[in-house]
Amino acid sequence: MSFWTNLFSPLRSKGAFFSFSVKCKRCGEIIQGQVNVNNEPSSELDENGKTYYACRKVLIGNGHCFQQIEVFFTFDEGRRLLDKKISGGEFVEN
Ligand SMILES: [Zn+2]
């Protein structure tokens, strides 16, 4: 019974998405991305043995440009954003 409860509980996934926007450095296209912070990041240990979560994503625009934009996010135990890195583009505010 708990299996089904966990799988379909709407509370578990509510508000679990971290949204961001990036700008391709080659063509300037703005690309929207999303991280499901409950499922996508993998847990890691920092040098002090403290748990954090890390997630890497590669984004490609819809246009004719094939520039790959790689983003890397880290989150703390409460799934709050700690740090972000990008190559191939830059972050823009939503
Ligand atoms: Zn581009």
Please explain how this structure is put together:
The protein is built from two helices and seven strands, in the order H-H-E-E-E-E-E-E-E. By secondary structure, the protein is mostly beta strands. Strands 3-4-5-6 form a four-stranded antiparallel beta sheet, with no helix packed on it. Mean pLDDT is 87; it is low at 9-13. It binds zinc ion. Zinc ion binds at residues 24, 26-27, 29, 61, 65, 67.
SSE layout and pairings?
Layout: H1 2-8, H2 10-13, E1 17-24, E2 30-36, E3 42-45, E4 51-60, E5 68-75, E6 81-87, E7 89-92
Antiparallel strand pairs: 1-2, 1-7, 3-4, 4-5, 5-6
This protein binds zinc ion.
Please supply descriptive tags for the structure shown above.
four-stranded antiparallel sheet; 2 helices; 7 strands; 51% strand; elongated; binds zinc ion
Helix content: 10-25%
Distance between the termini: 40 Å
Q: Please state the average pLDDT score.
A: 87
Give me the Rg, rounded: 16 Å
Number of helices: 2
- Please give the number of β-strands: 7
- The low-confidence parts are 9-13
Write the H/E string, N to C. HHEEEEEEE
Secondary-structure class: mainly beta
Looking at the structure, what is the overall shape? elongated
How would you sum up the major sheet?
4 strands, antiparallel
Walk across the major sheet and give the strand order: 3-4-5-6
Strand content: over 45%
Small molecules bound in the structure, each named once? zinc ion
